[in-house]
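Good day; I would like, with your permission, to put a structural problem before you. What I wish to show you is a protein chain and, alongside it, a tokenised description of its three-dimensional fold. Please examine both parts with care and let me know of anything in them that strikes you as inconsistent. Thank you for your consideration; the sequence and its tokens are set out here:

***
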Amino acid sequence: MEIGQVIRYIRTNKKITQQDLATAIGMTRPYIARIESGKNSISSDKLTEILEYCNVTYNEFFYIKNDYKPSSKMNEFNRVIELYYANNMEEILKIKKTVSEQYEKNGDIFLRHLYILCHCIENDLDSSKVNEEYIKEITDYLLSMDEWCYHELAVMNNFILLFPPETAFLMTKNLLKRADKYKGLNLDKNMLSYIFFNLLECSFKYGGYYYSKIVLDATKNYYKNVSDFFQQTLIIYYEGMLNIVENSIEEGIAKCERAFIIFQTLGHESIYQKYKADLEELLSKVKNKEATAEEV
């Protein structure tokens, strides 16, 4: 739908007349009619006034405008991922060719990032096969942004498992700034959850325990007023992992086992097995470190 059509749809759905709306925002009824018919444009300030008067958020407005779907542009990332899981490489290669041609015409950085994602998927998301220059390009882009918006978060989300650990940790500062500033925007919630817990997993796997504490504290702060049961269970698990690293081994194991009981009770057997293996790997590292210290 066009902007005017959405305004008319919202207005009529709220049982507001054109005259009521015009009076409320200081415009004439004929001008409102011309906006709704697409004959006149509208400033962002006036659009904001209309939405506030109608008690509709910007997110709702653009969701309706896009026929009750997320932004068609940003949704292309999800579409490519879905095609990957559907094993439809032929369609992914078509998208790769199309976005490459479009990028050459208009230089939209979104298209460049989508092209690189297609390349990575074409190479099985295997960092040993992916063109290193592409990952460097994505890295340089993200690190050059002082203030991340939703696009940067989506890029981080899509490429996080391809970054070297030290690179992922470097991006933590911007991620945490974004999480704190936009935590009231539910649009980020699932994506931030994925990134937070992947960073935590990465930090324990590669020994970046300094970042483990920073990311865990940020994750706990982000979810402190939220009753997301699965995320709260993962927080208990990673609290236990951090306890183990900080030499409170028995306390840490107990917390991890609490999380395991919940996973098993909920029927998440594969998740339980995955995190149990991660715990055993960490305990092995701690044991080897203690043995080395005794030898010295």
